[in-house]
Amino acid sequence: MKMRLSGPTIIGILVALVVGLALFFATRPAVLEVELARVTRGPMRVTVNDLAETRVHDLYTVSAPVAGQMLRVPLKPGATVIAHRTLLAQILPVEVGPLDARTLAQTKSTVAALAAQASATRAEVQQSLAALNLVERQLARAAQLRAHGFVAQAALDQARAEKDRALAATAAARDEAAAARHSLDAARAALIVPGSAARGRGVVSVVAPVSGTVLTVPQESARVVTAGMPLVAIGDPAQLEMVTDLLSADAVEVRPGATVSIEDWGGAEPLIGRVRLVEPYGFLKVSALGVEEQRVNVVIDFAEPRTAWRLLGHGFRAAVRITVWSAKDAVRIPISALFRTGNAWQTFKVERGRARAVTVALGRMNDNVAQVIAGVRSGDDVIVHPGDKVRAGSKVRRRAVSPIEESNAVN
């Protein structure tokens, strides 16, 4: 006997099926869409990056040898100069200033006293010469008497000693007279009237100490200068180097001979350089944010011919990437696929559509990738930027596959 279902019963069964299906779809784990990247194998390098400046290898800053009025500098930056021949500047030495009445009276009194002292020393010289003449005659007589046996040898020795003392006294008197004369001249120089020696003042000419090119002229116009003030900077633009000041923690990783990529210098292609020197001392530098940093200068030579960088000059700026580590064949994983769990690095590896948390051992890192020692292999897919929703065992669906670009892996 067949059972017939009434209309309300059929409706109830259908409602129950709909509710069951809704509950099933509502409670089943959602499939997450994630971005995947592939672990690859290839070259990798780690660099220290900073800004650098070009500078002439041997820079000569010519300074004013005397104080005075400098005439207009006849040279412009870029001019060629020849050692010991090209005139750089002319300086008219500074004129003496006038003396006030008190200082003038004191100076005149000093001159009079020194003149009297010089006169006295001249008299002492004449007196010592007379004494020397006397002892020389006495020595001659004693020598004659000794030759005939009329005086003892002791008398002759005494006469010779008297002559030696007279010679020493004469030399001392002459030195005192010379010192007094020089002191008198120095005192008289203080009485020179301003303007009296203007026609006799000589212009001091400053010539180029080396051959090269004028790099800078701080001021071309005539002006008053002091001794030691910079006038002109000279160097050879063909002998350029680069210098960058690295944090001391980065500088200890740099070795002489390391390869350097010189970028953003204005040319179409990066230039290649080599580290020549890591200076053995550091210095304190305050950053733009006011942080005190210990810095170390690293000097870089160009490894390419001058034709490649001929447009560069002294004081030009560029970005440098100094290689501190490199490998031709390394297993590489994107930095964005890594996260910390305690003291360990982990990544989400995708297997059969599910995310699996894997602990990885890492070696070197750069800005884009890390070297994998253990945990994943080349060809594995890992989740990039997993976010908070991804858990171990989560079902995932590939949204995009982004293989590591070769250039990013190298950098």
UniProtKB/TrEMBL annotation:
It comes from Sphingomonas qilianensis. Keywords: Coiled coil. InterPro entries: UPF0194_transport, YknX-like_C. Residues 331-397 form the YknX-like C-terminal permuted SH3-like domain. This is HlyD family efflux transporter periplasmic adaptor subunit. It is found in: Cell envelope.
